[in-house]
Every structure is written in C-alpha cells, then in structure tokens.
Amino acid sequence: VKVLWNDRIVNEDEVRIGFEDRGYQFGDGIYEVIKIYNGNLFTATEHINRLYASADKIQIVIPYTKDVLHKMLYDLIETNEVNVGHIYLQITRGISPRQHNLPNPPVEPVLTAYTKEAARPLDQQKNGVNACFDNDIRWLRCDIKSLNLLGNILSKEKASSNGYYEAILHRDELITEGSSSNVYGIKDGVLYTHPVSNLILNGITRNVILSCCEEIGLPVVESAFTTTQALEMDEFIMSSTTTEVMPVVSIDGQTIGNGKPGQWTKKIQQVFESKISSLVSL
Ligand code: PLP
Hints:
Layout: E1 2-5, E2 8-11, H1 22-26, E3 29-37, E4 40-41, H2 44-57, H3 66-80, E5 85-92, E6 110-117, H4 122-127, E7 129-135, H5 150-161, E8 166-171, E9 174-178, E10 182-187, E11 190-193, H6 204-216, E12 220-221, H7 227-231, E13 235-240, E14 244-251, E15 254-255, H8 263-277
Parallel strand pairs: 7-8, 7-14, 11-12
Antiparallel strand pairs: 1-2, 1-6, 3-4, 3-5, 5-6, 8-9, 10-11, 10-13, 13-14, 14-15
Helix pairs in contact: 6-8
C-alpha cells in the first residue's frame, strides 16, 4: 500500500520523518480520521474544513488549498483500492531546532496520510457497549483536533483495562464527551448533548446525528447533563467517525434503560445507514 507524504503518493518506506519534527517532539500538529464507505469518503468536506479550522487555531498554514488536499485523498484511496475503512491524516508544524517558540519564519508543515481497510463494528452497534465514567483531565482547548492525546489515552486505557469500551468524561459533575467520541442521552423523547464549546471536539458524526434527529422528529437540546442524570437516561449513545452511532447500554456497571439499544437509537442508526448507503463509489 502507498501513503501520502506531503503532496506525493509514495511507498511507506520512502517516508522520512525528521528527528526534530515538532509533531514528533511536541505533538505540535493536528489530524483527522475520515471514513471510507463504498470506496468513497464520507463527509470529507466537513472533515477537511475542521482540519483547516484546527490548523488556523494553532497558527499552522496548510500549504495546499482544500480542493487540492481533497483530490490527494481521493487519489490515495483509489491507488490503494480501499472499499470500507478510513484515512488517517496528520499535519505537523514541520521540522525546526527544538524550542517551544514557533519557528520564525515558519517552516513547511509535514503531511502524512495512510488508508486502512477496516470492518464496521456492526455487532457492537447491534448489541450496545459498556462504558465507565472518568474525570476529564484534558486541557481547555478540546475543540482543536490536536495530536496531543495523552489525557484521552489515559482515560481510554482506564476504560479498556477494566473491560469497558469507552470512558465518558466529566468536569466536576457535567459530562463533556467520550475519550474518543461525543455522547448523548435520550430522556422522555428528547436528546441531550453537550453544546459545542472549547470543552468538546465538534464531532462530524455528531452533526450527522443531529440532522438524523431532525429527520425522525427527535427534539435536540444542546446542554450539558450530569453523571447522575446520565444513569437515569432512557437511552445513551456515543459517536465517532469509526464507531458511528454506538449504543451505550451500561455505565460503571449500571444498566441504562432496559440494557438494550433503545427505539430512538435504532431509528437514528437507520437514518445514518441510509446516508452511508447513498454514497456512490468514485
Ligand atoms: N471527541 C473526541 C475527543 C474524539 O477523539 C472524537 C473522534 O475521534 C470525537 C469526539 C468524534 O468526532 P468525529 O465524529 O468527527 O469522529
């Protein structure tokens, strides 16, 4: 398989990563994961827009237009003939002698991207997954899709080493999001989720889900809820590019609703599925 290195599609072993790449030394960079269905990219424009927005927030100037980048990603999935899977893409600030200050003048950012063929987690989507709570110890710019993921990693590790699929993060009592997902509770026919702010990543899947809710007539309230309220929800969902619409059926061992994916969740999944299947191959 081939990879994208800056503006060239090359063999993986041709890629050379600089010793003083600021992504490598500081996590000074940003990334995206874009899902591939039917050999085509899902919500690519939204992901590319978020990538440029993240870059802007940390003063990285991406040296390609959005259209050129979009085209390079298409070329990569065509070259690798990926049918279902994803593209991982990252851009670091570039290579410069190690110092905290931004290089002045700026150096050329370093882009790397690769594709991965990967099956969808259909069994988990059908049966639901278990989650746990964890303190949200991350910084206050969670809106940036930064390469710095140590807070997320520690929470995910705490979850998985205890047999949970995801950690649901909270600041004081208020739930923000999952360690690598957005989260939602449904109570008495209303879907609640944390509003878009510096405390969460504005998920692309989150936006797709909110439009699914509109289509099925499920009212949405974008306001934070507490861990206690979470346990009293009728239904609970987590979402991300790779997990899609994932029912959460227990948290910290306490059953949510009747312990099975709920009716609203299934409806959201159906509409989500129709959006995926309307994607035609390249
Ligand atoms: N929140 C965090 C912290 C994430 O890492 C992710 C994705 O990995 C999400 C939310 C979901 O974002 P998206 O739906 O764009 O994949």
